[in-house]
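From the pipeline queue, job 12 of 40. The input is one protein chain; the requested action is below.

Action: predict structure.
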Amino acid sequence: MRLLPRRPPITVPPDTSVRNAMLQMNQLGNDSVVVVDDASRLPLGIVTQSDLVHAIAFHGEDLEQPVAALMTAAPFTLPADAPAHRATVLMIQRKISHVLLVENDGALCNVVSRSDLFGLRGGGAETLAETVTAAADVDTMARAASAIRKRGAELFRAGMGAEALCQWMSALNDLVIMRIIELIEDEFDLPAVPWCWLVFGSEGRLEQTFSTDQDNGLIFLPGDEADSERLREAFLAFGKAVNTGLDACGFPLCKGNIMAGNPAWCLSLEEWKRQYTAWMESPEPEAILNSTIFFDFRPLYGNYNLVDSLRKWLIPLPAQHPRFLRSMAEEALTCAPPLGWTGGFVYDGGRRHPHTIDLKLYGARPFVDSARIWSLTHGHWETNTGDRLRAVATSMDLSPEETAAEVEAFYLVQRFRFQQQLSAKTPEMSNRLNPSNLNELNRLMLKEAFRQAKKLQLRLKLEHGF
């Protein structure tokens, strides 16, 4: 997120006059100033242009008084390397327009405003968010979640791009899940230890579509590791209740039982570290298949610092386990894009679904798997597939044009998935496309997207010597 702001922040000491602060904003084209401590340079507060105009016009505030008198103290902050999505959700949830980005020592990095964030204002997000945050029970939340999916379908049909729609839906779905957790948390006497709700898979990658189940877990920090089993038992009932609430709101229970209500995925920080270490040190085929979505994790509700510490611990480790990365690549290559040698489509539906292609497995997955492997190889922790491809481009010496083509191809596949999910008559057809139902131009576009996926897999083969 540190690269999002388009200008450096304006910083002023607390005794700067309101007049001087407004003059600097006007001259430098910023809409805010950050008040910082003279000695430590740590941020004390923020003042926006609209705050000052309102204070002067409606309250007759003195232009010569210290700007600290009108600042918003203890402003919302996020780590500078946190994903932009976290700022989007925070702004919608708290109804704020600016978030400070800080370094590990608390020093100011920059300021992110609403205008910096992708698609924040689009599609009536704020009205829907107000409905979500005002919901007082799970039944009301279910209606709000349904309204979000309905509005998302309208935006898609109106032409919203696939990447923007994924960001839009992910932000609002996060608010739904957070509100469900809030409501259910009040019903339980949870242990007084740091904990956080984790999301994995498409939810962790911010790539939820109109048809998606839940993949989640829970992390906690015991005062004594010997207390882990007792604390797990206390959290499990809560996790199962949240899983049930999410199911009622249109997020089906995970068929593979990757949910916080499963003891296997309700772990202490040290237990999660041991689990990731085991996957990397003993990359058995079945373990690799089961572990991939767990490397797409992000925090959703609770103590984010706990998850950030797990992330920082994990970032350098995959590169130290080349056998693990090779095994991931080998598994990824089992899902070849559905294009034959002659350039025609290859169908996988068999007799039950003739002339159809599973766009999730053979269309989106080659991009998702490749981007994940390269992100882990080069020590980047973006979870979104498009962001991962952009992040690794420099490390892999790829041109901006190559990267843009890869990202565009991935979101084109996602767009076809959205279209299919909205038109499918049965759940089993939600990701299954018959290319014959497309016009000639769309068939050519889909083939080009699959060719880009083939290029990604060829790069994986060359890198790992297959």
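Job complete. The domain at 11-116 is CATH 3.10.580.10 (CBS-domain).
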